[in-house]
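Sample intake — Radical SAM protein
Collected from: Dictyoglomus thermophilum
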Amino acid sequence: MNQEYLDSLLKEIKKVWKNYHPPRNKNILFHGIHFAGGEPFLNFPLLLHAVKRAKELDLYIGYVETNASWCINREDVHEKFYLLKSAGLSKIFISCSPFHTERIPLKRTLLAIEVALEVFGKENVIVYMEHFLPKIAKIDIENPIPLEKWIEIYGEKAAGYIFWEGYALIPGGRSGFHLGHLFPRYPAEVFREENCKFEILESQHAHFDLYGNYIPYFCGGVSLGKIEDLEEFYKNFDLEKLPFIKILVEEGPYGLSKYAQKLGFKESKDGYVGKCHLCVDVRKFLNDVFPYSQELNPKDFYRFLF
Ligand code: SF4
């Protein structure tokens, strides 16, 4: 994301969120803005700028999210956390799961937590998910742990439970295809009553990517449009102009699969772990048929699925 786009996005958010206060009934994870990635510390000057700019605009910052991959040197971690705190950041979110330790040794996560506690204080450090810390520590602290190692230790069934239930995994990306065999799968028809009205229109949770896509909820690869002027975007939003998304809102991915079947889509014989798994399978097919569809964006989401 470049600085110009980030600045304009924050200004636009301010226009839409004039008098924002975090809703009490909402989980703290969904309060205000969070800066995430990818990994936002990969471009620390931009991250620091983002926090400063959001503060100047008096925007409510929920937290900055990190996978701790960069946490190697204690002084460096301290300096970066301290600079963010001084710029007005109150909370930090540190990811911890078998999917993170697949690439990131636990010792980096532990260093991030230790320094974060010092700088931000206990109540302002979110470790997501903390219950994985002892499980991972028992396997290996120094090195990354391939997912196969979990399967070797726990067996397929228990490892599947750890991955899917333990991390509350949403199969809205590659997970359904790569890890679906470790969890119960169902025919597409099982999801026929599940539409996506809440996720797309009502969740009040969205992501903005570096290309300007407005991604609802956790629906990677679904774009409600490009954001240049957020106020205008809300004013002019018209579901009728988004044929695939309209089907998802009204009939869910099962409805979309019925539409895609007329074009040649074939449901997986192995079934699906959840409605989002079915959705991604159908959208991958539709993206091949309609490679220029603006609703199916960013394009790399589909390019790197398998
Ligand atoms: S099924 Fe598709 S549109 Fe619905 S919540 Fe999952 S990813 Fe989003």
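Post-analysis note: The chain has a mean pLDDT of 96.
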